[in-house]
Amino acid sequence: MTIFANIIDGAEDTTGATFDVVNPSTGAVVGQAVSADAAALDRAVAAARRAHPGWAATPWADRQDACNRIAALIEANADELARLLSQEQGKPLNGVGARFEIGGAQAWTAYTASLTLEPEILQDNDEGRVELHRVPIGVVGAITPWNWPVLIGIWHLVPTILAGNCVIIKPSENTPLSTLRLVQIMQQALPPGVAQALASDGGLGSQMTAHEGIDKISFTGSIPTGSKVMRSAAGTIKRITLELGGNDAGIVLPDVDPDAIAEDLFWGCFINNGQTCAALKRLYVHEDVHDGVVDALVRVATGLPMGDGLDEANVIGPVQNRDQYNIVRDFVQDALDQGAQIACGGIPQGNDLFFPTTILTGVGPGMKLHDLEQFGPAIGITRWRDEDAVIALANDDRCGLGASVWSSDPDRARAVADRVSAGTVWINKHGAIQPNAPFGGVRQSGIGVQFGVEGLRECTNVKTIIR
Hints:
There is one protein chain. This protein has 15 helices and 21 strands. It has about 475 residues and is of the alpha/beta class. Helix 5 links the parallel strand 8 (about 140-145) and strand 9 (about 165-170).
């Protein structure tokens, strides 16, 4: 059985007990991760604080070169990382799966490496000169989820490193292996202590958020856990960036061609088997095209093979873990109990983690599948007639991560998009994040943004020089 070590101060650290990581497709143990304790965290923080002055003083161009080397290392190890990711997360190698994620991680790293943060001259006249500089924060703790462990890991690691910080990443206990291997590979491009990785089967996250040697916490995960992160980080007044849950709404206008939008609409709902914060979670379809859209979505859903991620034929895998599987099952049953109808899929009968792609009609407020984030392979469709009413319904949610509008009329789509309250609104697509476009939520979907220059600024403090 392969044991995956933590990465502390540039080297593998195997101190501590191990825990099993299970393939959700088969139930087999993929490998074991070493569970870091408080002492391991202290060692990692000490190494990061030693490394930080030298890394912060490294010229920006040299840090860019290091990030470009990381991109090349990801590309060189892409097959190994994709297979490891598929085994521990469950997503298939093909489709919008493990190879897609590793390719995205490489491309995201390469793009981020191209960014710069130049000083801004706010004033330069007879009264004096005012310069705004962006400087490193120090040591950053990154806590990442199980749905896109490598790609989201890169979102936390690379801009933080480029900005001159040192980073300690703690991946989810469900999917730690690919992140541990990623950070191990990154050591070839970085000085010891700049990027470290600690796995844990419980308790380490709260220790990181409270640790006096960590200056910022960057967290991607659920709203309840994000609230705990805020409370814990408040004790030492840490900087925070939070990307939390989404209950994204999609509004389909009556002028669409159902067949033309079906595939993009389907993957907006079911990318990564619906296990994506910015996946479409609430679908509002105008009554004039409701049946046509439902039929078109069902045709897409029923034509896609589901199974073991390592089988090259499959493009949809299992739900990653039993807890999330049970949530999706509960939400679907609740909707059915309140009168929703099955268009395809439904309550699974087996004991594995494969949940059939499920589309329900007749879903609305008061049902869990509408009001809460299901984070899995089930979508509820709500029929609408009045535009003002559906926009109000779409905005009536504690989340506000993403949303989308679907129409053949660009001007009408833009008018509706302007009235939808979310961090990102897509037109005729959903969840299409990109590295040059800031991404973050409103309301309880988070604090701060990621990606592009705006996301890079989140990895810095402002320093004003006046003379």
